[in-house]
Amino acid sequence: MSVSSFFRIVAVATAAALASGCATGPVYDIAITGGTLYDGSGAPPRAASVAVRDGRIARVAAPDTRLRARRHIDATGLAVAPGFIDPHSHVPESVPEMPGPMRDVQDLSQGVTTIMASPDGELSVRQMGMLRDELARRGSGPNYGCYVGHNGIRREVMPGEHRTATPEELAAMEAQVRAGMEMGCVGLSTGLMYDPGMYADEAEVQALARQVLPFHGSYDSHVRDPGAHLLESDREVVRLGRATGVPVKIAHLKAVGLANRGRIGDVIAMVEAAQAEGVSVVADQYPYDGATLRYARELLLGPDGKVPGADALAAMLADPDRRAALRDATEQGVDGGFAWIKAVGGYGSMRIVDAPDAPDLIDRNLQLLAEDWGVPPFEALVRLVTRHRDVRLTLGSIDEADIRELIVRPWVMIASDGFYVDDTVRALGKAHPRSWGSFTRVLGHYSRDLHLFPLEEAIRKMTSLPADHLGFADRGRIAEGKAADIVLFDPATVAARADYLHPSRPSAGIDTVLVNGVVVYEDGAATGATPGRFVRRQQPE
């Protein structure tokens, strides 16, 4: 604990002790006083005190109200807001690799108190049940919810099959979706760009989505082909919402690559036209200009569908026929299967973010670089792999103007699409700054610095908007009776410090974070407390 923090706590505790002789009423666990309240609804901020008892917000009082509490937190100069909800996170999937509880400082240090597991269709009901049991045993700092993952259940019902489902297989998957909803999942998620979801037709996906209707669930989709067929892929989500009546969300919405620059406006127009018709459609967005990261060498695929090692690659490149086979697999996948080049819409979607021995290559688009070099894009990729060390690329370059045009829409919530970042992930070159900075980047850069929207709107995008869509009726707002997930931060200094070269630097300006009424983050570190729990979708009243 810093010296200043120590004296602040002592001073506040002393004042509280003196005041308690005059105060009447119940004794709370925690009283937060002196701050500016942003209640999560998007309403203008106001001065208020917040009292917490038994994991709930017990009272929201006038700022001069004397509150008796076992602990007083002085929030002078700070914003007091609901804990942020990350509707698209891959962090829980890494629990088996985590040492001990899921303290998850990368989320807590941004003010995130609830994270959603199994986006992109990742986990089956069985896998999610195992993860939930493991987290219950180990403990967790943040809360966590989950989707039923289409890819996960498809792998279990149709192992190794690259085709549409039979009626019997579809019925088995439908039963799994219902089982997941009974377990407390919020809805169905799909990853239609990935194997095996890419082999499902619209009829299969719509049939599975209909199973969440009796549970008032929702549908979340990593769309089918956002690189080469952006608008049509997003339109497929809207069609599902229109056909089934299920509320839908387009996951990590963006326009990637040279071919899609400026086209986010077409997507926005399509979504808002559907909303005008009564279709419930929203989206989430991470505030960075690049999607997933990979070393350049990982993009190369041999005819066996695997990334070749250095010796095998040299042998392939030395033989014209094998070189051609390497190019075909890299660009088209093996037997039409998954390949990054194809999935993201070609080389024009890729931008270099790190080149340790050639920093002049940073920010170069791979397609444009190939044109400058006078070689086909595949040969430019080979040159990066064979002549340079540890070149990393984003596999979905996004134009900053498109980010800004989308992020201001009132139906767009903030998400990280983050992964648990440890030494192994860093060594693999996959650590992305969005894992450590998405929420604070919006608060600091897009709201405060660029003035794209006021702070209360930024907070709404992270709190009540995702809570309402996910069905978390007791979270996302600071109001009496709600769960005491609360973040205190300094509006003047809050900022993301993570970038592509330093992807796991913690954010600035986050002061204190509570989950279910327990302090889990303060003085720049996780406290070690694990009050997080599995959050079920709640039925509307």
UniProtKB/TrEMBL annotation:
Protein name from the UniProt record: D-aminoacylase
CC annotations in GO: cytosol
High-level lineage: Bacteria, Pseudomonadati, Pseudomonadota, Alphaproteobacteria, Sphingomonadales
Keyword Ribosomal protein included in the entry's annotation: no
Xref: Gene3D superfamilies: Metal-dependent hydrolases (3.20.20.140), Urease, subunit C, domain 1 (2.30.40.10)
Organism whose genome encodes this protein: Stakelama tenebrarum
InterPro entries in UniProt: Amidohydro_3, Metal-dep_hydrolase_composite, Metal_Hydrolase, Metallo-dep_Hydrolases_sf
Domain Amidohydrolase: residue ranges: 431-521
Record PANTHER family: COLLAPSIN RESPONSE MEDIATOR PROTEIN, HYDRANTOINASE/DIHYDROPYRIMIDINASE FAMILY MEMBER
A GO molecular-function descriptor: hydrolase activity, acting on carbon-nitrogen (but not peptide) bonds, in cyclic amides
UniProt keywords, alphabetically: Signal
Superkingdom of the source species: Bacteria
Signal peptide feature range: 1-19
